[in-house]
Amino acid sequence: MRTTSLQDESKEALNRRLEAIALRASFANGWGLFLITIGLLRLAPQGPVPEGTWLIVAGVILLGVNVVRYLNGIRLSGTSVTLGPIALIFGVGGFFGLELPFVAILLIIFGVGIMLRPWLDPLLERRTQ
User: Fold this and answer.
1) pTM to 2 decimals?
2) CA-CA distances (angstroms) from residue 6 to 17, 69, 84?
3) Is residue 95 pLDDT above 70, yes or no?
4) Is residue 129 domain-resident?
């Protein structure tokens, strides 16, 4: 009996270590992907790559890292949850050549964030598994 509980504790400890390694790898991969994409976009000739492409990539990566954090039961980053949609909105606007009113959109996003705060707080806190 005692051996089984020690084995279970050992397996749980190993599982926690592997999850931590996977999370660090996903975070590093997110930053690596972001920097590689920005570098490739800067190397491309001006014509073929639309203006807001890098903001779209940045928004997707910021939100994607938070999806990985959420699925692993780790606290979400409020900053990247806010900056991700902002980058996407302005990236899509730039992609289609739209001049979006920065301050107005920022105020709307912050207002929606304040209104949704009671529902978002549980997501931003560390989940228990």
Assistant:
1) 0.65
2) 16, 29, 43
3) yes
4) no
| Secondary structure of residue 110 in the 3-state scheme | helix
Q: Please give the Cα distance from 94 to 90 (Å, whole number).
A: 6
In a domain, 19, yes or no: yes
Residues 6+ apart with CB under 8 A from 126: 73, 74, 75
Three-state secondary structure call for residue 47: coil
> Does residue 86 belong to any structural domain of this protein?
yes
pLDDT of residue 129: 47
Tell me, yes or no, whether 106 lies in a domain: yes
Burial readout 89-122 (b: 16 or more C-beta within 10 A, e: otherwise): bbbbbbeeeeeeeeeeeeeeeeeeeeeeeeeeee
Q: What angle do CA 93, 97, 100 make, to 5 degrees?
A: 45
pLDDT in tens, 9-43: 776 776 667 666 666 766 677 778 888 888 888 88
Query: Which residues, including other chains, have CB under 8 Å from residue 36's CB and lie 6 or more apart?
Result: none
Q: Note down the domain range covering 67.
A: 2-124
